[in-house]
Design a protein that fits this description.
By secondary structure, the chain is α/β, with parallel strands linked by helices. The chain has one domain: Alpha-Beta Barrel (TIM Barrel). The chain has an 8-stranded parallel β-barrel with strand order 1-2-3-4-5-6-7-8, surrounded by 5 helices. Helix 5 runs parallel beside helix 7. Bound molecules: glyceraldehyde-3-phosphate (G3H). Glyceraldehyde-3-phosphate binds next to strand 8 and helix 9. It comes from Natronoglomus mannanivorans. GO terms for molecular function: triose-phosphate isomerase activity. Involved in the gluconeogenesis. Catalyzes stereospecifically the conversion of dihydroxyacetone phosphate (DHAP) to D-glyceraldehyde-3-phosphate (G3P).
Length: 214
């Protein structure tokens, strides 16, 4: 199971979380990765943890002030990028363009989507993975795997129907090992989570508990 911790812009210490994630990763069969803010990518990658960007733009080198260039993200140490997160929505053409930019820079890709129908459309664009996240459950601590298990199963079916080899993750409200196991039982190959670790009093303990039952 991929356990991807999105630090969003939470006021946590990204290096402390990344260091804990790298150390916990060595104790588990799960694959733990961290997605910090762009300005923290390099320092997070230096901890040795698998590092992801939260976003890249559909651009090349050139006159693109304020954008995130996939090559620069890669040079900073990221091995993958989220795209179209619920808090960083893109138009369809921009998702496609950002996927192209990420491929050009050899970044792995996860396209987020709100529901199974969007998952089908996102999977058809050929990312490495898609992540289904009902926006209303994000940050609530109520796991999608419990509140809306059909969404996860339907997303797995929608991705398979797209005919591409695309893994499915689920996210929103995931904060315990039980939630991760439930996600796996619904067909997800990973989880995308944030507040359960980034806002925890002890992020290392939260991570250990997340992967303990795997
Ligand atoms: O990227 C992570 C998701 O938006 C889930 O956030 P959450 O774990 O705080 O619900």
């Amino acid at each position: 199971m991929l356990v991807l911790i999105n630090l969003k812009t939470y006021p946590c210490d990204p290096i402390a979380v990344a260091t804990a994630a790298r150390e916990v990763d060595e104790t588990t069969t799960a694959r733990i990765a961290v997605a910090p803010q762009a300005a923290h990518l390099e320092r997070v990658a230096e901890t040795g943890v698998e590092t992801w960007a939260q976003h890249v733009d559909p651009i090349e080198h050139g006159s693109n002030t304020g954008h995130a260039l996939a090559e620069t993200v890669s040079e900073a140490g990221a091995v993958g990028t989220l795209l179209n997160h619920s808090e960083r929505r893109l138009r369809l053409a921009d998702i496609d363009g950002s996927l192209e930019a990420a491929r050009r820079a050899d970044l792995e890709t996860i396209v987020c989507a709100n529901n199974p129908a969007q998952i089908g459309a996102a999977a058809a664009l050929g990312p490495d993975a898609v992540a289904v996240e009902p926006p209303k459950l994000i940050g609530t601590g109520t796991p999608v795997s419990q509140a809306d298990p059909d969404v996860v199963e339907d997303a797995v079916d929608a991705a398979a129907a797209a005919g591409e080899d695309v893994s499915v993750l689920c996210g929103a409200g995931i904060s315990t090992g039980e939630d991760v196991v439930a996600a796996r039982e619904l067909g997800a190959e990973g989880v995308l989570l944030a507040s359960g670790v980034a806002k925890a009093d002890d992020p290392r303990a939260a991570l250990e508990a997340l992967v303990e039952p795997l």
